[in-house]
Description:
Elements: H1 5-8, H2 11-19, H3 22-31, E1 37-41, H4 47-55, E2 60-65, H5 68-78, E3 84-88, E4 100-105, E5 110-115, E6 118-124, H6 129-142, E7 143-154, E8 160-163, E9 169-177, E10 180-189, E11 192-204, H7 206-214, E12 218-221, E13 230-235
Parallel strand pairs: 1-2, 1-4, 2-3, 4-7, 5-7
Antiparallel strand pairs: 5-6, 6-11, 7-13, 8-9, 9-10, 10-11, 12-13
Amino acid sequence: MGDYTNMSGYYDLIMTSGYYDYSKIVNELIASGDFHQILEIGCGTGLILEELAGRKKDIGITGFDLTEAMLAIARQRLDKFAHVQLEHQNVTALSLHKQYDLAFSYGGVWYFVMDGVNEPFLVSHIYDAQSNLDGLSKVAAHVQSKGRLLLGVQGPHQDYQSPISNGYVYSQTIQPIEHGFTKHYFLHDGDEQLMEQRIDYRTYSFAETLDLLASFGFKHQPDTQALPQFQSFVKA
Length: 236
């Protein structure tokens, strides 16, 4: 998995400059069903959980992330919410000693990317194949029977450059590699480069993903009209 230290200090700036629509994401999480314990897989700086916690005060909310620098920001952001718990953990060794009726990842460890008119493909922040199996096994162990796993759906990934807040310019480039792609992230302030990050992502076809998740007890629920921001899976 990539080292996110360089990005942590600028993550909120980039993400809140139109990268994601957090209100829409949480609308769909809330509409996905009646749940009492929710887990975010790769919570980053807590932007989704802040929106969720402010609107759902009667549920238990847990988020975890591998990067301590991200979690430090999330802890400050979410300290006001007594019903939110944050954990510094690696998904490949996840151990939270409880189960959840809803787990989700939106731009976290795993998510789907649209491929034109074709079915979306799965993108993993974990490049190693065995580590993906280990992580999915751990997540499955934390989702209760009949619980749901929601994986976010994003638009096509491509090279682009765009001005964001404070006069900064964010850009990204993508290069294919054997089992996925490498994504380079950049942030500039005029002629000064503020951030550069390189992460290798592993990809799986939609059919491969269905088989992979089925091996851990997750059955696909194709309700994309109701939840266009997510692909939904139910634990046997």
